[in-house]
Amino acid sequence: MIKRDVFVSYSQPDRECAFQLAAHLEAQGIGVWIAPRDMSPAADWAEEIIEAISAARLMVRVFSAHCNASPQVRREVERAVHRQVPILPFRIEDVLPAKSLEYFLSTQHWLDAFPRPREPFYARLSTHIQALLGGTVSLDAPPAVRTTNSGSPVTGRYSLSIDVAEIESLQRRLAYYVGPIAKHLVKRATATAADREELTQMLAAEVAPAPERKQFLEECRAAETGKHQSEF
User: Is residue 141 scored above 50 in pLDDT?
Assistant: First the structure.
């Protein structure tokens, strides 16, 4: 069996996208395992899938509405979680995971690949994967440590002066663009941002493409302006 760093998981209707993605990653020097291309002749399908996932350093889950109806998808995701293989959902449609998948995917960092064309998103994904495999970023990186002017560390959850209602508002606004991962992203950003502007910029960086990122920024700033006006 061929062993590769990245296991590309997909539903059969998304085969074309999955193989385009695999080809792009391999062109960037990233080793990919994808079925059925890398299956051994006369191999036991389930056994090869399990071994390939176990040997991978990362699973890329091509996510669409088809995934929600696929028991094979759930089995592959469950296996990756069991083997502690990080999962990177690559969302090609504006849909959220069904309840059977939400438990496994709701804390992951998502990358969106819509609207078409997908080529720019493939490039972004390959850059992110190279950083992940090189150890320079993490799918669930711990909050960075900030310091005060005196050099003392600032610790604790939500070190910004921001109340729960504002946090929940940010989560809802971001979830419109990135899905259930928003809760995790807001939690991480509020633990590291020095002020509200930095917080907004950090969250906006998670939104693609650029027009939606701009819209998210405008919504956040409008909400902040409205909050200040209501205080007077």
Answer: no
